Amino acid sequence: MSFLFNTYALARPALFSLDAEAAHELTLRSLQKAYDCSLTRGLMASQPELPTSLMGLTLRNPVGLAAGLDKNGAHIDALGNLGFGFVEVGTVTPLAQPGNPKPRMFRLPQKQALINRLGFNNLGLQAFIANVQKSQWRQHGGILGLNIGKNAATPIERAVDDYLLGLEGVYAHADYVTVNISSPNTLNLRTLQGQDELTQLLQPLQEKRKALADQHGRHVPMVVKIAPDLSTEQIDVVADLLPRYDIDGVIATNTTLSRDAVQGLPHAQEAGGLSGPPAHALSLQVIARLREQLGASYPIIGVGGIVSGRQAQEKIAAGANAIQLYTGLIYRGPALIGECVRALKR
What is the pTM of this model? Predict the structure, then answer.
């Protein structure tokens, strides 16, 4: 295990003394500096490999980075160097937007959880694509997912316009594209998971993707990221529509609005999406139902609440083909990546 990975446990108390969003930004800047220096870059230990096929892509291992950690795609190489099999960045919106007022990220350390209501804060599509183009991750064999969303100011009935702009912008630079319709922090966004709304979104996206595939001479897989708070009936609607519109996979799940697992804790009633272990069981239920409805071969990426190798195993056992980490990294540091790969190898 790399010396650099072990130092995270020493740095965490200082980071946790800062505001959660400030600590997040400091960590990304520090990681980038470590990567930019050839000496410390070499101290980032390579992680065990577990080649995995997903949507026609070959992953070095099935442990990925979830979207949201690097919204602007500014740290792709540094994050990939930690040992991820694939990296997803964003969510990006067509136009830059500041997101919701601060403070908007809160730790619940008793449960290794976070609540965030960031609200797709990002620098917009042009800056995002410029950052992606600067990165070397794909040239070195890394798999890159680009996650697209809608601007807060765009009326929900015009949401498809933003997703079409996003898809067109990122298509040439992505190994796969994620359509994020499940953040709880953009007004009415989750209504796009309804049967009529999802149909009206997926049909034009399918048509646009076909045109882009012809234009660029390559098929880029498209996946949809859904919420953990869907009813069984809503999950079944999603499972029916995704294959019908040639969507290549599903990410289950985003953050939850439920507070059942954190009742009475400081910050538990803050608005926003709850992530970390309290979301794990909800995610497992959604994954298991999707697998039941979609059959054995449909690609599912499991995310939500993985803070140990055991929880990574549980995601795969429920039906996921690959997993993604976010909140677990904040509490456990990059050593969690290797722990998950080794657990999945077993």
Answer: 0.96
